[in-house]
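for the record, two folds in this file. i put them one after another cuz i was lazy. first one right below, seq on top, structure tokens after. the second one comes after a little note so u can tell where it starts
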Amino acid sequence: MDRDGAPRVGIVGGGQLARMSAAPAAALGIGLRVLSASAADSAAQVIHDVHVGDHDDLAALRQFATGCDVVTFDHEHVPPAHLEQLEAMGVAVRPGPSALFHAQDKIHMRQSLTDIGVRCPRWRVVSAVDHVVDFADETGWPLVLKTSRGGYDGRGVWTVDSAEQAADVLSVPLAPGSQWLAEERIDFVQELSAQVARSPLGQAVAYPVVRTVQKGGICAEVVAPAPGLASARAVQAQEMALRIAGDLNVTGMLAVEMFDDGHDLFVNELAMRPHNSGHWSIEGAVTSQFENHLRAVLDLPLGNPAAIAPYSVMVNILGGDVGDLYSAYRHVLARDPAVKVHLYGKQVRPGRKVGHVTVVGDDYEELLRRGRHAADYFAGVIDE
């Protein structure tokens, strides 16, 4: 706790999610500390209380957590046994290790969701090509192969059309503790994300359900709320997310990524932290996902998640040929003064998420055109 009595929140991970938590923390008078792999990481550039260390290093975690009222996460990669050690020190870890493990291990997640009756793509643990072929006899080709641990932004995920392709994938070395997961490939009409915030006392709020578009396994753009989504289907998605948060005892933000096949919803992934699909809420909601995550992990009353405009559009800025992103400001901001730009202070690499833009208004198709133009100019795809 800081000298003025305000709590100190420790965030494990120095990425852009921790960086975007700094502004709402400052507004609330909350102290932030970040465990960052490098002093040059995104969050370390804007949060003054930085501990440089590895999230796999228990000693570094213990030193970082000392003096924090609660520890939360920019990513889900901390070993659960380490988090249990922090809890033994008397540190509140939110979400707790038993909840967070669902976001760390896809097989554990699939089994838990199946046990509580949440619809997922059909799935099976496999270790040999014969297992994949047997599964394909039930679901048909193509199907999806995933590593149970370590994958993100499209990594560790393959779509295969044949036993030969499956054999090639299964030859890829697995990370320690990881297994192969085969899943039915859902013929979806759109991908959705339902975000909720939940506090330790069980208060929970649900954000508008959004449509996401993935390119190369990376979230490219988000429209909030999802255009044309029937109200009953939106409520179904929100109820699923709230149920998962409660049954898995999640505290903080939970993002539930779903496939909509036009008839039903299937849960694809879980993220127990602020999420790319919720960046629109900084400008587009009464209370952003970052503020509500802080409120939730501190067990403060949660803020209103309602949208403040008919639509909000977020488009990710992916690294391209332009290394000096700041040079794009003059054109982007002069051309469209209403666009909001967030740069993450990350070194530009092709395909890397280095920022995002948000536009709010009445016509989501127009907002998408404006958001795409700004993001493409930053990436060097266009020059006018």
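(here's the note) second protein begins now
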Amino acid sequence: MKNFRASIDVMPHDNLLDPQGKAVTGAMGNLGLPEITSIRIGKHITLQVEAKDKKTAEAKVDEACKKLLANQIMEKFAYTVEEVAG
């Protein structure tokens, strides 16, 4: 088995309101940074997975995202998977 590291980004769908992002965008003006706008806030997840090859590791990461890490009704996700030296 090989070891792989996945980096996963989970973000709200573009057409959904992001209350946290909107609040932070509004605060930028108070911080003297009015040129920073349209902030969207999500989460970044890293994990390790053991698999026989990269394709299998990607399938496991995809399954984890769909079943637990992202709420597909409200969020989208993207990931990269890289082999790590074991």
